[in-house]
Structure formats: structure tokens, C-alpha cells
Amino acid sequence: MKISTKGRYGLTIMIELGKQYGEGPVPLRKIAAENELSEAYLEQLVGPLRNSGLVKSVRGAYGGYMLTRHPKEISAGDVIRVLEGPIQPVEGIEDEKQPQRELWVRIRDAVKNVLDTTTIEDLAKANNGETESYMYYI
């Protein structure tokens, strides 16, 4: 499974919003500048995040984006599924022979477990140096 820039930059947006949770809306231009990313590209990514109900927009001079729920209630898997689609290491698992199918299912389940048990809050804290970095064994 390969996570594209959509997923990586989408997680960046969510982590930055998680760091600022409860402090009001955050403009995308601020996120883009602090992470040296294209604001235009982040604009494209925030649409699906808003449509899925993970973020909401606030208009006006002090507008921007905010998380719709507490960062501990949003998993990395929620974000990746919105931007990348279903989590699966290979397509057509059901067409594989039993030994390969079993391997692909185990890999898929391990990746899902990591993504679904890692919250935006975990990532925001790790990014701030508040917790030790995570080591995952798959």
C-alpha cells in the first residue's frame, strides 16, 4: 500500500488543525506556509475532508478550518480512507489463491489497525515533541 501526497498532506492539515483545536479556525495559508506546501493543493484536499464531516469551514477575515470533533476522536484511518479510498495492499484479494490471500489479509488488517488506533491527537502531540515517537511493527 502506498500513501500518495493526498493522504500525506491531508494528514498534515488534520495534524495542524489538531494542534490548534479549541483555538478557533486556522487559515490554510498558515498551514501551507508553516509546512512549505502549496496552498492551492491544500484547498483541493480540504474539500473531501469537509464533505466527509471531519472539518468545517468558517468564513470571514478570521476564518479558516477547524476539526468537527476532538482530535482524539478522529483516527489517521478516517483521513486516509477519505482521501485515498479503501485500505488494501493489493486489488482483487478475493481472486488470489489461499496462501497469498491470507498474507494480503493479514497485511491489510495490520495496516488498518495502526491507522485506526492512531488518532490525530497522538500525531499532533508527537509532532510537538510531547510524547515519544511511535514504533509500529507490522
Fold blueprint:
Layout: H1 5-19, H2 28-35, H3 39-51, E1 55-58, E2 64-67, H4 76-84, H5 98-117, H6 120-127
Antiparallel strand pairs: 1-2
Helix pairs in contact: 1-3, 1-4, 1-6, 4-5
Silhouette:
elongated
Strand arrangement in the largest pleated sheet? 1-2
Structural class: mainly alpha
Number of strands: 2
**Major sheet summary line:** 2 strands, antiparallel
Q: SSE order in H/E notation?
A: HHHEEHHH
Strand coverage percent: 5-15%
The percent of residues in helical segments reads: 40-55%
The Rg value, from CA coordinates, equals: 16 Å
Mean pLDDT: 89
Q: Which blocks of ≥5 consecutive residues have pLDDT under 50?
A: none
Total helical elements: 6
Terminal residue distance: 13 Å
Task: Name the features.
mainly alpha
Q: Can you offer a commentary on this structure?
A:
There is one protein chain. The protein contains six helices and two strands; from the N terminus they run αααββααα. With 138 residues, the chain is mainly α. Strands 1-2 form a two-stranded antiparallel ribbon. Helix 1 (5-19) packs antiparallel against helix 4 (76-84) and helix 1 packs across helix 6. The longest helix has 20 residues, at 98-117. The two termini are 13 Å apart. Keywords: DNA-binding. It comes from Planomicrobium stackebrandtii. InterPro entries: TR_Rrf2-type_CS (IPR030489), Tscrpt_reg_Rrf2 (IPR000944), WH-like_DNA-bd_sf (IPR036388), WH_DNA-bd_sf (IPR036390). It holds the Pfam family Rrf2. This is Rrf2 family cysteine metabolism transcriptional repressor.
